[in-house]
Write a structure and sequence with these properties.
heterodimer; A: alpha/beta; 8-stranded mixed β-sheet; 4-stranded antiparallel β-sheet; 19% strand; disordered C terminus; B: alpha/beta; 31% helix
């Protein structure tokens, strides 16, 4: 096994970024048509860095991470573009080749620790499985390592835990076990897909700190997929905001929060209740809902819900362009924080545009009018 | 925490709902689950009471016990001057027209086979309110109030709507009988943040328009802060702290409230994530809750007294009540003359 692993990664250049994704698209064949779940995503990731991928349900954030890892192998899935890991192209790699990378090079922590653990297998065996397969360890050596792993992820009384089943552990403990499994063979790239969404906030804080600690200690790259802007703000170096299968804004974390350009990112930030605001603060709302990914709108995908949208946005898709800060990219014709954007918003407000009214006043009924308009369009398209 | 006592209850005429010493226990093969152990709460007319806590703290059980779904093991639920725990099934059905419930999952709480107009009109039909035409009028009115176009929505079925729209339909259904109190159990937890804001704003609007009193149950502290006039923090079947939201968040008095607040990720990259003061370990089993203060096993300030004597609610600042012997601000609790030793007994 070790031999094959070396052969797979001969193209490794230590200077090259760990992961380079170019124009990746993932489509699902369904009876209703082709769903463009991920549509032209490019990104790079260096060792030791954390990329936060943020988006609402259906934005393609989970499909993106699974596509990169090669977990979507059904015949109903089409991929195009390129995913290069340490110089090796992964799209189209054989399952046997991917199997050598999973665990040793890249690993994933899933959202729900109950369903990602095998309920009828003892914790110890689930951790040692990868160690025995990839590192050819003896049973006793693998068990020793599993014990060390459980200790490192902060599980009390690890000796006893090795012989327990997942149902005997709390949700937080189970997620620690899945992290131990993911880390067992020393991966260089860790995907954490909503790792704390199923957990309580006090446990979430523990798990996020654990991931950060392990990442720094092992100098791993991490892709943190979440819908929670609070989680990425404090735990990612860089953030990619996804909407309808595309990256709509990407920047270093600080730049993104200080210099938002994409109206969708701004809207997301403004719609979350914040602890430092007084009680009963009126929230700004985003009307409507994400577009149908079978027939995405011709122009900007956010345009039907966007308070800044103009004629051009409905017909012409904005490309990902670079802002003043290097590495900051966004997709918008009338970006936030520019004269063009301010003018567009003012014009929409003057005309009583529902999306603009909803965003500025928090009028929930205006927001619903945007949703209703979207629903009518769906009906005409034949897939309500 | 783990406090009992009712110092935080208010003695005024406009209290519409009062819960006293509510206990809910479930017998299981492994013993008795102490889900809710002697909590007291009250809500004034037009007020929103936020009930916040982590999973297993008993907040949903409390909401359901108020509705008598199922009836509590002991305690009183006084709504509009009547103790609901004493009422017959028929009387309860009548009371529930003015005490409504909104569930977490908007899609599974609507019957998928029925049209929206029938779902919303059903309570009216059951109670035989008005004529067919009046009912139709009333349904159109509430659908319009929650932001749905009655002409478009009436004939559709729930699957034709998004999650946020289904929650609007649930809200319309709960409003159609003109309730005075609506209990919302995690009404926005299943929704995306952009839709969550719509529903929170809508609830505020409905409260204003129909003069509603809300009990808002949620695990998200920021959401609860946004909507509430008074917040009760729960832990393992007990109330720890009750205060107006701005006070509670600015200066929590209970160590658990403080730990909870510190755990929340802040959407601001200039704030480093909290590394200290986080809670360790897990929630103790409700089958065998700790003696004295139920939070003591995870509390950084716990002392011997916390294991022996259960703290009771007392006021530490204007309107801020805490059940803790050694609160983060305010005075140490005076020694109790009749120490309560075991929390199970206290419940």
């Amino acid at each position: 096994m070790a031999r094959r692993e070396r052969r797979i990664l001969t193209a490794d250049q230590s200077e090259a970024p760990l992961l380079v994704v170019e124009d990746l698209a993932t489509r699902f064949r369904t009876p209703n048509g082709l769903v463009r779940a991920v549509d032209g995503v490019s990104l790079t990731l260096e060792r030791g860095r954390t990329l936060g991928v943020v988006g609402e349900s259906g934005s393609g954030k989970t499909v993106l991470s699974r596509s990169i890892m090669g977990l979507l192998t059904s015949r109903e899935v089409e991929h195009s573009g390129s995913v290069r890991y340490r110089g090796k192209e992964l799209l189209g790699a054989k399952p046997a080749e991917m199997r050598e990378l999973w665990g040793t090079e890249m690993a994933m922590v899933f959202q729900d620790p109950m369903t990602s653990l095998n309920p009828v297998m003892k914790i110890g065996r689930q951790i040692t499985e990868g160690l025995r397969y990839h590192h050819n360890l003896s049973k006793a050596d693998a068990r020793d390592q599993a014990l060390e792993l459980l200790k490192s992820v902060g599980i009390p009384d690890p000796v006893r835990r090795l012989d327990q089943y997942p149902h005997e552990l709390s949700g937080g403990m189970r997620q620690r076990v899945t992290i131990a499994i993911a880390l067992a063979c020393g991966p260089h790239l860790l995907f954490a897909d909503e790792p704390t969404t199923a957990l309580d906030v006090t446990v979430q804080a523990q798990i996020l700190n654990l991931l950060k600690e392990q990442q720094e200690e092992r100098h791993m790259a991490m892709v943190l997929v979440t819908h929670d802007l609070g989680v990425v703000a404090q735990h990612a170096d860089e953030i990619a905001v996804m909407y309808a299968g595309q990256i709509v804004e990407r920047a270093s974390t600080r730049t993104l929060f200080e210099n938002v350009r994409m109206p969708y990112t701004e809207a997301l930030l403004k719609s979350i209740p914040k602890l430092d605001e007084p009680s009963h603060t009126r929230l700004q709302v985003i009307g409507g809902r994400p577009p149908d990914l079978i027939n995405p709108p011709a122009g900007c995908r956010f345009a039907p819900r966007c308070p800044y949208a103009q004629e051009r946005c409905l017909t012409e898709q904005p490309p990902l362009v670079e802002a003043e800060t290097p590495g900051h990219e966004y997709r918008c014709w009338f970006p936030v924080g520019t004269a063009k954007g301010a003018e567009a918003l003012e014009r929409n407000l003057a005309e009583g545009d529902a999306a603009a009214v909803a965003a500025v006043t928090g009028d929930s009924t205006a927001a619903e009018r945007v949703t209703a308009a979207a629903t009518t369009n769906d009906d005409q398209g034949g897939q309500a | 925490m783990a406090g009992t006592g009712s110092a935080h209850l208010r003695d005024s005429d406009d209290v519409v709902l009062r819960v006293q010493d509510l206990v809910v226990e479930f017998p299981t093969a492994r013993g008795t689950v102490h889900a809710v152990s002697g909590i007291s709460l009250d809500v004034r007319a037009g007020e929103t009471l936020g009930l916040v806590g982590e999973s297993g703290c008993g907040k949903s059980t409390t909401g359901r016990a108020i509705m008598q779904l199922p009836p509590p093991t002991s305690g009183q639920v006084i709504f509009e001057g009547r103790d609901l725990t004493m009422l017959s099934g028929e009387q309860l059905r009548e009371v529930r027209t003015r005490l409504q419930f909104i569930f977490q999952d908007p899609i599974s709480s609507l019957n998928p086979r029925r049209k929206v107009k029938d779902i919303v009109a059903e309570p009216l039909r059951i109670w035989n309110r008005g004529t067919e035409a009046e009912r139709k009028q009333r349904v159109a009115e509430v659908l319009d109030a929650v932001g749905l176009d009655p002409d478009v929505a009436s004939e559709k079925r729930p699957h034709q709507f998004s999650g946020g729209q289904c929650q609007r339909i649930s809200i319309a259904r709960s409003l159609v009988m003109e309730p005075s109190v609506v209990i919302c159990d995690e009404p926005v937890s299943a929704l995306d943040v952009s839709v969550q804001a719509q529903i929170l704003n809508l609830l505020e609007d409905m409260k204003e328009r129909y003069g509603l009193t809300l009990i808002f149950i949620a695990h998200d502290l920021a959401v609860v802060k946004n909507i509430s006039d008074r917040v009760a923090v729960m832990y393992l079947g007990k109330v720890c702290e009750v205060a107006p939201p701005d006070t509670l968040y600015a200066a929590p008095a209970h160590p658990y409230t403080a730990a909870l607040l510190r755990s929340i990720p802040v959407p601001d990259p200039t704030v480093p994530p909290a590394a200290t003061g986080l809670l360790k370990g897990d929630l103790p089993s409700p089958l065998d809750p700790p003696t004295g203060c139920r939070f003591r096993t995870r509390c950084p300030h716990a002392q011997e007294r916390c294991a022996l004597e259960e703290p009771t609610m007392r006021e530490v600042a204007g309107g801020q009540y805490v059940a803790c012997h050694f609160p983060l601000h305010g005075e140490v609790a005076p020694p109790s003359s009749t120490p309560v030793t075991v929390s199970g007994v206290a419940g």
